[in-house]
Amino acid sequence: MTSDSLELSVTRVIDAPVETVWKIATQRLAEWWCPKPWTVEIIEQDWRAGGRSVVVMRGPNGEEMPHEGVFLEVSPGKRFVFTDAFAAGWHPRSAFMVGIMEFADEGGKTRYTGSARHWTREAYDQHKAMGFEQGWAAVAEQLAALAEAEHRAPGD
To answer: Model's pTM, two decimal places?
Structure first.
């Protein structure tokens, strides 16, 4: 996407079917959500439109970044959309972005696209300066490694 759209995104083809990638993405979020060595503690993930999403990202030097928001859409096997513009119960908050994680079949593999849409140029620039491309690409790699290992596991 162009910077005029205030959207940043990364995409990657994962050598596993959508069903496997979706399962890993939603059931094993703590294993791929942050670029290592960062970790994430899942406080709540209510996988439905309007459901609460709360995580705390932790850095290797004791940094803590709590994130609270809601899911705007959860379409199993296709995509989930979340934002920090609301807390549970549709209580407005100061907004930074809308996150969109999409999963599309590509000949038995999965095209994963992670996007962040921003309300303001300042938020877009801040996210880009924080290392969006590098961080979200690392997260896509972590998701891919988990999904591809699961797909190759004996007994599947």
So the answer is: 0.91
Residue 8 contacts residue 116 (beta carbons within 8 Å): yes
Q: Are 34 and 55 in contact (CB under 8 A)?
A: no
First-to-last CA distance in the chain?
37
Cβ neighbours, 10 Å, residue 1: 11
Provide the 8-state DSSP code for 72: E
Cβ atoms of 123 and 97 closer than 8 Å: yes
Neighbours of 63 (CB within 10 A): 9
DSSP string of 118-149, one letter each residue: ESSHHHHHHHHHTTHHHHHHHHHHHHHHHHHH
3-state secondary structure of 53: strand
Pair of tokens at residue 89 = 């119960």
Question: What pairs with residue 74 in β-bridges?
Answer: 80
Tokens of 153: 């596991």
The tens digit of pLDDT for each residue in 97-152 reads 999 999 999 999 999 999 999 999 999 999 999 999 999 999 999 999 999 999 99
Q: Dihedrals φ, ψ of 37, to 5°?
A: -90, 5
Residue 100, phi then psi, degrees to nearest 5: -130, 120
